[in-house]
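Side project, low priority. Logging it here so it doesn't get lost.
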Amino acid sequence: MPNDRYVLQQLTPIEWIVVDTSRGPGDPYRTVACLSETDGSEYDTIWLQDLGLPATWASPQEALQAIRLHSGRPTRIPSRKPIAIPHRQPVRAPAFADGAAPSVA
C-alpha cells in the first residue's frame, strides 16, 4: 500500500509544495516543504519541518518519494530495559555525646 499521506501540489510552473494530508487545513505543520526550480535540472527545497533530507533534488517527485520513505521509518529507538543502578546504604553522620554539634577550632 503506498504512503499517500504526503502529496505534491504544483503552485506555479516552477514551484511546488509537499503537503501532509493527515493534518487539517488550518494546521501550520501541514506544509512540509517548498520546492522551486533553479534551472532545468535542479530543484531547491525550503524545509518547513526538519527531516534531515537534502536541500537539492533532481525533481519534485524525487523529493516527495524521499519524504515518503523517511516517514515510514520509526522516529525513535524502541525503549529498552534501563540499566540497574546499585543501591547502597546512605552515609550516616557520627553521633555526638549529649546531642552537641562538633566544635570548630
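Brief comment: Residues 6-71 form one domain.
Revisit when time allows.
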